[in-house]
Amino acid sequence: MATLTTTSLSKSFGKTRAIDDISLDIGDGEFFVILGPSGAGKTTTLKSVAGLVDVDRGSVRIAGRSMDGVEPYQRNVAMAFESYALYPQRTVSQNLASPLRSGRSGRYSEAEQKQRIELVTTTLGIDHLLRRFPRELSNGQRQRVALGRVLVRPADVYLLDEPLSHLDAKLRAAMRSELKQLGAMSSTTSLYVTHDYQEALALGDRIAVLREGRLVQVGTPLEVWHEPVDTFVAKALGQPEINLVDAEVDGGVLRAAGGALEVPVPRDSGLAAGDRARIGIRPRDVELGRGAEPATDHLRVRGEVRLHERLGREIELTVDIGGVQLVAVAPGAEQVTEGDAVDLDVPLGKTHVFAAGAPGEDTARIGAPTVPGRNR
Amino acid sequence: MATELMPGRKRLTTGSVVADLAVIGWFVFSLFPIVWMVLLSLKTSAEQTSTYFTFSPTLENFGTVLSDRGTALTSVDFTSALLTSVVNCGGAVLVSLVIGIPAAYAAGRWRYRGSNDLMFTILSFRFAPELMVIVPLFVIYNQVGLFDTKVGLIWVLQLVTMPLVVWILRSYFEDLPADLEQAALLDGYTRRRAFVMVALPLVRPGIAAAALLAFIFAWNNYVFPLILTGSDNSTVTVAISKYLGGGGQAYYNLTAAAAIIGALPPLALALTIQRYLVRGLSFGAVKS
Amino acid sequence: MTTTMDETGTREHRHGGTGGTGREVKPVPAWRRRLRPYLLSVPALLITVGILYPFVLGAYYSVLNYAAVRPTPEFVGLDNFKTVMSDPIFWTSVRVTAVYALVATAVETVLGVGIALLLNRSSIVGKIFEKVLILPLMIAPVIAGVIWRLMFNPQFGILNHVLGLGSTFNWLSTKTALWSVILVDVWIFTPFVAILVLAGIRSLPKEPFEASDVDGAGWFYMFRRLMLPMMWPYILVAVIFRFMDSLKIFDHVFVLTAGGPGSTTRTLQIGAYEDSIINLNYSVGSTYMFLLWALVFLTARYLVSVLGKAQKRAAGSET
Prior knowledge:
The structure holds three protein chains of three kinds.
Chain A: E1 4-13, E2 16-26, E3 31-35, H1 42-50, E4 57-62, E5 65-66, E6 77-80, H2 92-101, H3 110-124, H4 139-151, E7 157-161, H5 169-181, H6 183-187, E8 189-194, H7 197-203, E9 206-211, E10 214-219, H8 221-226, H9 231-236, E11 243-250, E12 253-256, E13 261-264, E14 276-281, E15 287-288, E16 298-311, E17 314-321, E18 324-331, E19 341-347, E20 352-355, E21 365-367
Parallel strand pairs in A: 3-8, 3-9, 6-7, 7-8
Antiparallel strand pairs in A: 1-2, 1-4, 4-5, 9-10, 11-12, 11-14, 12-13, 14-20, 15-19, 16-17, 16-19, 17-18, 20-21
Helix pairs in contact in A: 2-4, 3-4
Chain B: H1 13-41, H2 60-67, H3 78-109, H4 115-127, H5 130-144, H6 150-175, H7 178-186, H8 191-202, H9 204-220, H10 223-228, H11 236-244, H12 252-272, H13 277-281
Chain C: H1 7-11, H2 30-61, H3 79-85, H4 88-120, H5 124-132, H6 135-138, H7 141-152, H8 158-162, H9 177-203, H10 207-214, H11 219-247, H12 251-256, H13 268-278, H14 282-318
Helix pairs in contact in C: 2-14, 4-9, 4-11, 9-11, 11-14, 13-14
């Protein structure tokens, strides 16, 4: 158990900057998630912490101790590799015993080793595979073994590189909820890398969003969800992606979609009449309008359904509002089809205002609309 | 039967017959000399020049070659040449492995400055004209007393074995995911132990292939022992060639028997590593 | 967080165990880390230098007048090069080597590719013969030379008997010797080209062929437009090995003809052998070798650059 601090970690491979100025401060026992698309530098960050990558600049401290020049095997960290990295010529049981036999994570008698392996394999549901070789396992089983090799021994820090990425959707959801309940995991400082925002939100005590080797935002799941620092973070979280609608300030409101969409200008935003900005609306926040009046703080807009896609229990609607396409998610029971006119209720308190930018360009968040009678 | 000249392409039966005939034609050409050699080695001295295919076979020639101590017929001590070849080639391969494996590992794992220069210099030994080295070594060996010694030959055979070992193994180490050794490091093992425990067992086929192939080529080498050894440490290849020039008298049947004995070890080794042969012969350039 | 860590803080190493393992932690400075691959390469480097030393010495001999009869040589500048290059026998050697290398490589490449294509079919005959394809290649070239010398023998040799040439045809005469030694080279080394190319063919992706088969492309079109460009790198690797080896050919030629009759099969390495080992004129032999080395070196550089381009092109055509 230990804190983990990285200071200005930077590493280039040839001309490509893998990570640039990564500074993190992770508390004792914290479950910290790094979220980012592939190639963002997530694995390089993990391997830098582990000492497997020699950083160009910056330093790592574990439990307050500088790790400068400390060999990986002396850092007392455990890592689950995305490629599993199971020793192919050894059985599952031998793979799991490997960290216990090196003598560097403590000394264990044969009986203690057996007991630990039993405990961890039972927890992960792989206790029937002990004598198998990695090549005889499914990807899901391999991933569990890789996790088991981490959990089987105490460590200052657990490093987990996409440990659920190769599982199918169902197993992934199950493992996600299991992971947090694992005793060792909840008490050991963990650095968890993923490209899946749901994992990040579900598991992380805090989340760092990484983009092209740089930290974009660090915060609790609630913070990154409710106050994304820019459109990149906003788009990274949530499926379908957040709607971004171009708007112009006109008389104290942001007007978009030919006047169909009007959102109050955020307080202290510095936006003046004629300025341009972007309104961000998450599809899942939009509701189909019911009754004569929208709920309080909701804006009702009218549009025509252009696209209707069923996603399991829900439907995804693309609605045209005054020439702007807005994506909304509605319960599957709704009887709407393409061409129908619908009312959409947009919760003003949950919308975001971002600086104006070209399509595809990421811009900073300015704030949330000032809803009458509420702050934020 | 249905054949395909290219993947997924069916050919007419007449075409496949012609193709089969062409294949057979090549193998008649390819195997005939070997068959002829075997026949010749089974003939008595009386029959060796008087008959082609009908004769009463005998294994006597092999006994003569192996018991020849360089006194009786030909001034060739074939058994001691066999032993010398085994020691030379074994020694040369061993030296190359001990020295080459770490270098191959370094080159396969890290991109360090000078890595390519060293690798290509080692490769260039394979293509350099041997006499460029032999002439000076001939002079030096005569001066320092390495002429006609096993140590001297093991040293110069590095030109043959080292490039093979280093290049083949580098290609194997390159193919080995670094994650495995990194996992071992995080399990708490030192770099050396991670290498011995994880990397080494996984490239064992590569090591075996490289070692055996290096042994074959060292065994088959002729020009180094021809010039750098005398009668004490002459090798199998030199000994066989001596049968030909044997003092006016021709011992064709003995020559054939000696040639077969000398060819057997490489052939046997080659068949055991057939799966890895292409990769070895092309120094790792062609992976099959 | 970055501001709380000052310079001295980041540099501080606190010795002692981490996480209760109670082990001494010895930091390894960065320069020591970077040294690692070099340390692993040191023995190989020493061997390399040890082998390079006679190389350099050989080059040095070529500017001396060093011979067994002249144990204290003098510096003679480029005299050896002048002597050698004005000697017609040297140019005979150059011609013999060039003809040998070009013809042998060309024939082996064509035959090797042909055999590879034939063996690539899933025929029973092919499967049986594939196993024995490499036999001539694994026999020592000098033994191959011995075998063929016995077969070439005009009186009792099997070739004249089987081919019905009587006992007068001389395979190793002034006119025929060069072609005969090339024939033996073809016998030994064609399998080398064949197995490399065969491995190459088998590693080719199947999809382009299936696609163009569906499109109704003819066999020759597929071979020329699809197979050949993708096989080209493998063929080139084989050609490079064969051509460079042919330039310095020695073993079986030496056993078969020792360079004769006359100088008709006197390749450059055999010439160097005569001058330095038989005549014990080290400097002249080394001059031969230096010139051959330069030839090999330049050829190698050229062929490797061709190979690099071909590999890039083939990679492009595969995707």
